[in-house]
Amino acid sequence: MGPTVAGLLQVALLLVLLAACYVPLGDYMARVFTAERDWRVESALYRLVRVDAAGAQRWPTYAAGVLGFSFVSIVLLYLLQRLQPLLPMSFDRGAVEPAMALNTAISFVTNTNWQSYVPEQVLGNTVQMAGLTVQNVVSAAVGLAVAVAVIRGFVRSGTDRIGNFWVDLTRGVVRILVPFAFVAAILLVAMGVTMSLRSGVDGIPLAPTASQEAVKMLGTNGGGIFNANSAHPFENPTALSNLFEIFLMLVIPVCLTRTFGTMVNNRRQGTVLLSVMGVLWGAMLAVAWFAETHPNGPATLAAGGALEGKEVRFGIPGSVLFGVSTTGTSTGAVNSLHDSYTGGAGGAVLLNILFGEVAPGGVGAGLYGILVLAVVAVFLAGLMVGRTPEYLGKKLGRREVTAAVVAILAMPTLVLVGTGLAIALPGTRDALNNDGAHGFSEVLYAFASAANNNGSAFAGITVTSDFFQTALGLAMLFGRFVPILAVLALAGSLAQQRRAEPTAGTLATDKPLFGVLVGGTIVLVAALTFFPALALGPLAEALS
Amino acid sequence: MLSTLRRQTSTGLRLLVVFTVLCGIVYPLAVWGVSRAFVPSAEGSILPTGGSSLIGIDPVAADPAADPYFHTRPSASSEDVLGPADPTTSGGSNKAGDSADLLDAVSQRRALIAEREGVAPEAVPTDAVTASGSGLDPDISPAYAALQVPRVARVTGLPEAEVERLVAGASDGRILGFLGEPTVNVPELNAAVAGS
């Protein structure tokens, strides 16, 4: 069997696994967020921390919860790193210096997991477990909560309440992320992933890998416990663990479209969005796979193939499948170096991020990301036929469209301003690992990754300077919270409206035509915004 | 608004403390407990001869003219174009296909390996001249293993057929017949050669 056929079978198995989970997991998540009753452990927890779990919140209160929780998370994670010498199992790895600690704290709280440090040298077990693993779980739960609040905006009618953030957050942690991550971690250990509390053996660093690996993928986080991330044999030892890790990062974002369909009581609304995600993911996979098997760089041709930065056990198919899935979700874990990809494949993974990470997107973030794009698609269609646009029985007026546009435009603004600023600064050239078009791609990728909360990198770039630590830190922060505030405002505004019955002029949003419109909107927004930047970077490289 | 924010933030802090205990202590320690009890290899798959079967660090021969080892792929963390990796900094070169540095490294590796194995430069396979993503890739392609068999047989005095048998013992096909690529595990192979 040739590598291409084997690779296609691998893709097929992945799709079968995802399809098998689609209905049960999607419906389970819908039940989690609509159930009236709390689990006993949850009620106990609410009493313990004195949370008012009964009261539903208006959107500003819900948003205040998101911001407040994330703020204290950043502070705690920063302090843990700064106070590392006082913590147990730190292996004399010292206090993390302030700019790096702040960048890392923002990075993990915003579900980005961008890493400017070498984990196996800088962080001990306590910061890894009590700091980073915790944020791997709760930052994903925040994304889930926001997505569910937005769905409620469409479902509810004539109310200003969109749910209770603390209940949504707790249920995401207790009923979804922790139990599934535990099972996944045990399976990963069985597949050969390490799990050790020792500092190392024979000079090789060890770490509590499996527990973090599981939630790193399941929560679309992506921060490696080792510098080489999922390329490291301790994190990803076999082709089987590789496929399982790809499955883990896709499974919640994919199944959330079912959750959406179930909650809005029209399953086909979810399938339409899923097909858009699937087509984009498949297209990017095809481009990246083709480019890697048809390389054009002189060094790659001299080597006889694109294996620089790849592991033998994964080969090209297992590497591009991972690369496209990690950039289509907001994971950002890597099992091969995107910086060493060919121009075409590097461009594909970069474009996948620049689509706004909706193929299928991060946990929660992917769903609310594609929902705002769907809102814009409905609005554009409404303009074309001259009717008031409606989506799921809700009229899309000035407030709704403004909120959607703010959510969509925050990321491109951060990426383009950040990249432009970095290129204009004289010191940036020294930070790059490659010259010419590829060097430009390294900067563009860095800001795209930060503003989209992805966290992968064209990792040759050195980002430890004060400028990059600060600029990328701000990009992560605004790239996360501006869209969250905008979509929560959208949810609040939608929930207040009474549901309008569909008329003859209403655009059917559960039909393939609407999928084409949403897909077109995604591609158009990205193309109009980023074409000049992409032409200077990956396109120039691919065509040279 | 400000008082809402303050109240929500203090709720958030209390909940975060609970989640830190649940997700940061209970959850990882539970996974660790299970792995300790049932999967001893989770402590790093240590070989009886030292080192880990998961970690490829290129062995250095005391006398390069009589080199008895199978070699791993190049590592970006090594000081020279070929040479042992530094396991404390995993990672790759991050060099692109149009990088002059990478072209230079590939050419040097091809020449050095061809000379070491006594073959034509074109016979050296791709994985032998490219650095892995982790810098610690324990595997090589069957082609690169086959290339090294005659030298290892000559230096160790083992019959070639015996060395080929050892290579086969350290080889894995695609998992389930289609996952990943065929591999030869170098740390296991060198341990097997040393034990013969």
Strand order of the largest sheet of chain B: 1-3-2
What is the N-to-C order of secondary-structure elements of chain A (H for helix, E for strand)? HHHHHHHEEHHHHHHHEEHHHHH
Radius of gyration of chain B: 23 Å
In which range does the helix fraction of chain B lie? 40-55%
Topology:
The complex is a heterodimer of chains A (544) and B (196).
Chain A: H1 3-34, H2 40-48, H3 59-82, H4 98-109, H5 119-122, H6 125-155, H7 165-190, E1 200-201, E2 204-205, H8 209-218, H9 239-263, H10 267-293, H11 298-303, H12 315-328, H13 343-354, H14 365-385, E3 390-391, E4 394-395, H15 398-424, H16 428-431, H17 436-451, H18 466-496, H19 512-543
Antiparallel strand pairs in A: 1-2, 3-4
Helix pairs in contact in A: 1-9, 1-12, 3-4, 3-6, 3-18, 4-18, 6-7, 6-8, 6-14, 6-18, 7-8, 8-9, 9-10, 9-12, 10-12, 10-13, 10-19, 12-13, 13-17, 13-19, 14-15, 14-19, 15-17, 15-18, 17-18, 17-19
Chain B: H1 2-38, H2 100-117, H3 126-129, E1 139-140, H4 142-156, H5 160-169, E2 171-172, E3 183-185, H6 186-195
Antiparallel strand pairs in B: 1-3, 2-3
Helix pairs in contact in B: 4-5
Overview of this protein structure:
The complex is a heterodimer of chains A (544) and B (196). Chain A is globular, with a radius of gyration of 22 Å. Chain A has 19 helices and four strands. Chain A is mainly α and 544 residues long. Chain A has a domain at 363-543. Chain A has a two-stranded antiparallel sheet with strand order 1-2. In chain A, strands 3-4 form a two-stranded antiparallel ribbon. The model of chain A has no long low-confidence stretch (mean pLDDT 96). In chain A, strand 1 and strand 2 form a beta hairpin. Chain A has helices spanning 3-34, 40-48, 59-82, 98-109, 119-122, 125-155, 165-190, 209-218, 239-263, 267-293, 298-303, 315-328, 343-354, 365-385, 398-424, 428-431, 436-451, 466-496, 512-543, and strands at residues 200-201, 204-205, 390-391, 394-395. Chain B has 196 residues and is mainly alpha-helical. Chain B has two domains: 2-43; 64-195, no CATH class. Chain B has a three-stranded antiparallel sheet with strand order 1-3-2. In chain B, helix 4 packs across helix 5. At the A-B interface, helix 1, helix 3, helix 6, helix 7 and strand 2 of A face helix 1, helix 2, helix 3 and strand 1 of B.
